[in-house]
TrEMBL record:
UniProt-recorded name of the protein: Toll-like receptor 13
UniProt key word Calcium: no
Domain of life: Eukaryota
SMART domains, A to Z: LRR_SD22 (SM00365), LRR_TYP (SM00369), LRRCT (SM00082), TIR (SM00255)
Membrane topology according to the record: Single-pass type I membrane protein
Keyword Zinc set for record: no
Localisation per UniProt entry: Membrane
Keywords carried by this UniProt record: Glycoprotein, Immunity, Inflammatory response, Innate immunity, Leucine-rich repeat, Membrane, Receptor, Repeat, Signal, Transmembrane, Transmembrane helix
């Protein structure tokens, strides 16, 4: 039966809703997504719904065929806004705020066939608004506030077949009069306007080809046909008229082809019920009388059932409480009766006796407490719906005479007892729906083969807690078994024995645990294609392999779902968990707390095409996991803490067309990964922590420009690193800044390196000493800055630092130390005693010299040859030159001629510029030496003062 309700009317709708588990071609757009291929544009679709758009996006491909702009904030369609899209076939701009469509706005899209402007704010249709739309076949203007249509506003639509003007503010039928002159128009929906009359003289002087006319929810007072203007009309909707309708059909056969009529909501407002219905006498087959009232509906039925062709009768929402024989006694020809959504509770035994031709009966959503005995008279019934009632018990003989029944619906009742043999007589039953009840046990009712043709059994949402052995063996033709949302904890061996034709088994949302998964449970299900075990209590932990793999005998299984196990205890699936599933194509194991996958987990499932392991704790995946499943086409690994997709390079997934890895922790996607997926057409990387640096430069350019892979919502990807760019859009990153000429970079680097080597060679050959001197002067400056702060805070720790060779240590310990520390009470710093353990020697030297007021250099030939002594005297001299203070005391233990000092440049310069002390020869008096050394230690910082005191 054709629907004549505008609420269910879908033929005019071009609203597009796409689900994503398929492989598509496309590319990244700022606010839209793409379905189709830029290379094969015959079905190229762009979807821009719910993006807050105020204008048409600029990056829509010019070859687009279907454009969905619904649910945005557009207020106007401008004249040249669509000029780039000459091949556009379907345009959906519904649910916007469009107040104006400029004349000539569709001039550039002459190929447009369907235009949807539903739910906007249009108030008038000017004469040029639809100019040049000669190919338009479907136009939706419902849900606007149109009050005015200019005479030629619609007359240019010469190919229009369907027009919907429902829900506007049109007052006079003359406003749409040009439509009735168009020979192409077949369906016209004008419900929920303000028409007060429909007169044939106001519509047209000639016959139209109109087949569907909807005038429901209007305040009609007159419906008058005086000329043959509707000779082809098949469906007429006059439901919920808001006034007392006067019916005037002067031309007897003017409605001779109407076979569907809706008079819902009339009640007492229609005068001359019998004469009205007689207008449709020759052809009426379907009559809808919803919301009429319990008394009024009886008058309609009595008149309607006199029409011999009447076959379908809808009587919903009439508050009918009881049903007796007189009410339907004239409806002998009716084959389909809908009494749903009433208050039916009582039936006389002969209520349906006259309806011997009835094949379909809907009694759902009533107050029936048991199966009415009156149904026993309907021996030809094929469809019976008793859903959403209050039935609690199904007795042995409830359906005894319904031997032709093919579909029985008993969902959403309170059934908890099924008597043995209740369905024994339903030899032709194909579909049995028992979901949403309180059934505790099947009690052997399906064991004996009493339902030989049953193909679909629905037992979902009941109270079953166990499936016993052989309990379903009689259902030899069953293909679909729904047991989801029960309380099943145990499945006995052989529970599904005999179900050799079963293809779909739904056990999701029960309480099944690992012990119930044994190969013997599923033995005999040789044709099973789909098995759903999600939302149970299956758990595996630290089990490398299983003794008895559960699906060993399911050679034909194509889809296995074990996702969302409630205990989240599947940390690792055993390596042979999928053994036996040689035909498996889809495997869903998402949201199970998986932390890793064994490399050989898929070794028996080489035909796998879809794998969903999202919402787990897989921080990384070994590429070997994917080697046995080279035919994989769709991979879902979102919300799994993945930090890198580099495993895809070695995974050999050349057939992948869909990759969803959203909301992970990936920061960089390199070119090698994308190149390893040559057939990738759909990529979802939303919600990752991208790094906005040159590591993603290639991906940024590729996502924005490639025409082969759609990067879903790429323009919403945000930067997480570096911190200064956090929150910015990834595709706004300037990738061009990362592009450089590698050859030029190498040339420049090589030239700089050569010049640097030449310069260093020059300095080493000609300015070696000056460079070394500058280097140590720079070090002294750095150490001096540090030690100046140390001296300011702590003062000097020693009176003198003694620099000497280890060969002269005996003299220092026996002569110098007893005299200066013993008799004169000076505090000396000696490297073997006062250096800090573990500290670098150079740092110890510098710190000791700068923390002492003076430095005493004990010079001998051994001293001149010591590297460490040379460094000590260098640091002391740097301090001397830097601070301009008399901090250096030279003590010669032996006579060293000037020519022997020449190789030691720094020592020679010090001797020439500073006086020094010489240790007396053997036998000479040493008191003068010690006195002069004491004076040198007591002297101040002035260089002149120091030089005057010391003598050679």
């Amino acid at each position: 039966m054709r629907s004549i309700y505008t609420g269910n009317w879908f033929k005019c709708s071009v609203t597009l809703a796409f689900v994503l588990p398929f492989c598509i071609d496309g590319y990244a757009m700022t606010n839209c997504t793409v379905k189709g291929s830029l290379k094969h544009t015959e079905s190229l679709t762009v979807i821009c719904t719910k993006k807050g758009l105020r204008a048409l996006p600029k990056d829509i491909p010019h070859d687009v065929r279907i454009l969905d702009l619904s649910s945005n904030e557009m207020q106007r369609i401008k004249r040249r806004e669509l000029e780039r899209y000459r091949d556009l076939r379907h345009l959906n701009a519904s649910k916007n705020q469009i107040q104006e469509v400029e004349d000539g706005a569709f001039k550039s899209v002459p190929a447009l066939k369907e235009l949807n402007l539903f739910s906007n704010r249009l108030t008038r249709l000017s004469k040029g608004v639809f100019r040049d739309l000669g190919n338009l076949t479907v136009l939706r203007l419902d849900g606007n506030i149109i009050t005015t249509i200019e005479p030629s506003g619609l007359s240019l639509l010469t190919s229009l077949v369907i027009l919907n003007l429902t829900g506007n503010h049109l007052h006079r039928i003359q406003a749409v009069q040009p439509l009735f002159t168009l020979s192409s128009v077949q369906e016209l929906y004008m419900g929920r306007n303000e028409f007060s009359s429909f007169r044939s003289l106001e519509v047209s002087n000639t016959s139209t080809k109109l087949k569907v006319l909807d005038l429901s929810h209007n305040p009609l007072q007159f419906f008058q046909i005086t000329t043959d203007v509707l000779p082809h009309l098949e469906t007429l909707n006059l439901g919920f008229i808001k006034g007392s309708l006067k019916w005037d059909i002067k031309l007897k056969d003017s409605l001779r082809k109407v076979d569907e009529l809706n008079l819902s909501g009339f009640g007492k407002r229609l005068k001359g019920t019998k004469s009205v219905l007689q207008s449709f006498y020759p052809s009426l087959t379907t009559l809808t009388l919803n919301h009429v009232g319990p008394k009024e509906v009886r008058q309609f039925i009595n008149a309607a059932c006199l029409i011999p062709p009447l076959r379908v009768l809808h009587l919903k929402f009439n508050n009918i409480v009881s049903l007796s024989k007189p009410m339907l006694q004239k409806c002998t020809g009716v084959t389909t009766l809908d009494l749903s959504h009433n208050s039916l509770k009582h039936f006389t035994r002969l209520a349906f006796r006259p309806m011997r031709s009835l094949t379909s009966l809907n009694l759902s959503h009533n107050k029936i407490t048991n199966v009415p005995p009156a149904l026993g008279k309907l021996t030809s019934l094929e469809f019976l719906d008793l859903s959403s009632n209050a039935i609690s018990l199904l007795g042995r003989l409830e359906f005894a005479n319904l031997t032709q029944l093919r579909i029985l619906c008993l969902c959403e009742n309170n059934i908890f007892i099924l008597e043995y043999g209740v369905f024994n007589d339903l030899k032709h039953l194909e579909v049995l729906r028992l979901g949403g009840n309180k059934i505790l046990s099947l009690a052997g009712i399906f064991e004996e083969g009493n339902l030989p043709k049953l193909r679909r059994l629905e037992l979902q949402n009941n109270k079953l807690n166990m499936i016993c052995r052989n309990e379903l063996r009689g259902l030899v033709s069953l293909t679909h078994l729904l047991l989801r949302e029960n309380q099943i904890t145990k499945i006995e061996e052989g529970a599904f024995e005999g179900l050799r034709t079963l293809t779909h088994l739904d056990l999701q949302s029960n309480e099944i645990s690992q012990p119930s998964l044994r190969p013997s449970v599923f033995f005999g299900l040789t044709q099973l294609r789909v098995l759903k075990l999600n939302n149970n209590y299956i758990s595996y932990s630290c089990q490398k392999s299983l003794r008895d793999p559960p699906f060993l005998f399911l050679k034909s299984l194509q889809t296995l779902d074990i996702s969302n196990q409630r205990h989240k205890m599947i940390s690792e699936l055993p390596s042979n968990f999928l053994e036996g599933l040689t035909s498996l194509q889809s495997f869903l194991a998402n949201n199970n707390n998986l932390i890793s996958l064994y490399p050989d987990i898929f070794i028996n499932s080489s035909k796998l095409e879809l794998l969903d392991i999202s919402q787990n704790d897989l921080s990384s995946i070994a590429p070997e996991v994917f080697w046995p499943i080279s035919k994989l086409r769709k991979l879902y690994v979102s919300r799994s803490d993945i930090r890198s997709v580099n495993f895809l390079v070695q995974a050999n997934l050349t057939e992948i067309c869909l990759l969803q890895m959203s909301k992970n922790k990936m920061s960089v996607i390199n070119e090698t990964v994308i190149r390893s997926l040559p057939k990738l057409t759909y990529l979802d990387m939303q919600g990752n922590a991208f790094s906005c640096d040159c590591g993603n430069a290639w991906f940024v350019n590729w996502a924005a420009t490639n025409n082969d892979t759609q990067v879903v919502n790429a323009y919403t990807y945000k930067c997480n690193y570096p911190s200064k760019l956090r929150g910015k859009k990834l595709l706004h990153f300037d990738a061009e800044s990362c592009n450089m000429d590698v050859g030029y970079f190498c040339f420049t680097s090589t030239m700089c390196l050569i010049l640097l080597i030449l310069l260093l060679s020059f300095f080493y050959q000609f300015l070696k000493l000056q460079v070394v001197y500058a280097y140590y002067l720079f070090l002294a400056f750095l150490y001096d800055s540090k030690l100046r702060r140390l001296q300011d805070s702590q003062g000097y720790l020693f009176d003198a630092f003694v620099s000497y060779s280890t060969h002269d240590e005996l003299w220092v310990m026996k002569e110098l130390l007893p005299q200066l520390e013993g008799e004169q009470r000076w505090k000396l710093c000696l490297h073997h005693r006062d250096f800090q353990a573990g500290k670098p020697i150079v740092d110890n030297i510098v710190d000791s010299i700068y923390r002492s007021r003076k430095t005493i250099c004990v010079i001998s030939r051994h001293y001149l040859r010591s590297n460490w002594c040379s460094k000590e005297v260098q640091v002391a001299s740097f301090r001397l030159f830097d601070e301009k203070k008399d901090v250096l005391i030279l003590v010669f233990l032996e006579n060293i001629p000037d020519h022997q000092l020449s190789p030691y440049c720094r020592m020679r310069k010090l001797v020439k510029k500073h006086t020094y002390l010489s240790w007396p020869k053997l036998g000479q008096d040493t008191r003068v030496f010690w006195q002069k050394l004491k004076v040198a230690l007591e002297s101040g910082d002035s260089l002149n003062e120091g030089n005057a005191i010391l003598s050679e």
